[in-house]
Amino acid sequence: MKLAWWKILTILILTYVLAMGLAGEVPRQAILNETVRNLYFHVTMWFSMVLFLFMSLIHSIAYLRSGKIESDDKAVEYVNTGIMFGLIGFVTGALWGKYTWGSALPKDPKILSAAIAMLAYFAYVILRGAFEDDQKRARISSVYNIFAFVIFNVLIFVLPRMTDTLHPGQGGNPGFNIYDNDNIMKPVFYPAIIGWMLLGLWITTLRIRLRVVERKLTEN
Amino acid sequence: MNEIRVLLRKEIQLEWRQRYALNGMVLYIVSTVFICYLHFNLNQNLLNPIVWNTLFWVILMFTAVNAIGKSFAQDSEGRILYYYTLASPVSIIASKIIYNSLLMILLTLTGFAVYQMAMGNPVEDQAMYVLALVLGSIGFASVLTMISAIASKAGNNGMLMAVLSFPMVVPLLLMAVKFSKNAMDGLDPSVSYDEIAILLSIDALVIALSLILFPYLWKS
Q: Where are the domains of chain A?
C-alpha cells in the first residue's frame, strides 16, 4: 500500500500529538490542572470545522459558476466532515466543561451559537433529501449553503463577542496564552491544528471518491 | 427600478383582491395573542416584562414564517414561467422583499396593538420599541423571502420551511429581543446602538446575498 506524502505526514503528526498531548509536559494551573490538554483536542476541532465549512462554501460557489456536479459532491462531503468535527468539538468541550466549569452544558453564548449553527447545517442535509433530480438538488442546496455559511459566521464570530462568555480568552477570562508562558504547549498545539485538519481532509477525499464511484455505478 | 415598481404594485393588488390571505394572517396573530391572554393574563403573576417581550417576539416569528412562507407558493408553475420571460430575477426578488417587508410591518404593528390591549404595555420608550419592531420585521422579511424561495423549489412543504428558517432567523431574533428589551426598560438609545448596527448589517447582508443568489434559484 502506497500513501501520498501528506497522508504519511498526517500519521506522523497525529502520533506525535497524541503522545505529547496525553503524556507530555503541560503548565500546572489551579482548577485547570491536566484538563489544559484539551487545547489539543477541543480547540483544534473547531478550527478544523471552520476550515471544512469554508471549503464547502468554495465548492458551492464553484458549482454555481460552473455547473459541474463534482463540485457539489465535494461541497456536501466537506459539510459532512465539518458536522462530524463539530460534534466531536461538542463532546470534548462537554467533558472539559464538566471538570472545570462544573457543568457539561452551561448557559454560554458560544455553546448556544455553535448549536444553532449546527442546526443550520443539519437543515442543509435535510434539504438535500427533498430533491430527486441531481442538478436541481445541487443548485438549490448550494444557494442554501452559501446562506448558511454567512449566518454561521455571524453566529460564531459576531454574536458571542457581544456578551460575556465563559470561554477562555474572552469576556475578561484569560486566554490559553497567559497560562502557557513557557511556550511549552505551542510545539504541540500548532502541529495538532495541522494534523487534525489533514485527517479531516483525508476522510473527505475518501468519501468524495466513494461518492463519485457510486454515481458512476448508478449511471450505468 | 420601474420593473420593481410594477411588480410591487402587482403583489399588492393581488393581495388586495384575494384578501383572505391578509385577513388570515391577522386572524392568526389575533388568535395567538388571545391564547396567550388566556394562559398568562388570567394568572397575572406569571407575566413579568421579560416574558412579555419574549412572548411577543415568538408570536411575531411564527407569524412571519407562516406569512412569508407562502410568498412563492401562490405562484403556479405557468405563472413563474411567464414572469421569467418578462422580468429580471433581481427585480422579482427585490419586489418580493419590499412587499414582504411592508406586509410584516403592517402585521407587526397590528399585532402590537392587539397585544398591548390584551396583555398590557410595560414599555417605557414607545418610539424605540416601535423602531425595534420595524427593524425586526424588515429583517424577518428579507431572510424569510429567500428561504421561502428555496423551500418552494423543494416542493413547498411547511416542515422544510420551518427547519430551514429557524436557524437563520435566530441571530436576528436575539438582537431584536435585546434591542426591544432596552427600549422597554427606557434605557438611553445610545445603549442600543450596537444592536441597531448589527440588525441593520444583518439586513443589508441578507438582502445583498438574496439579490446575488436568487438568479441561480430562478433558473431551475
A: 32-219
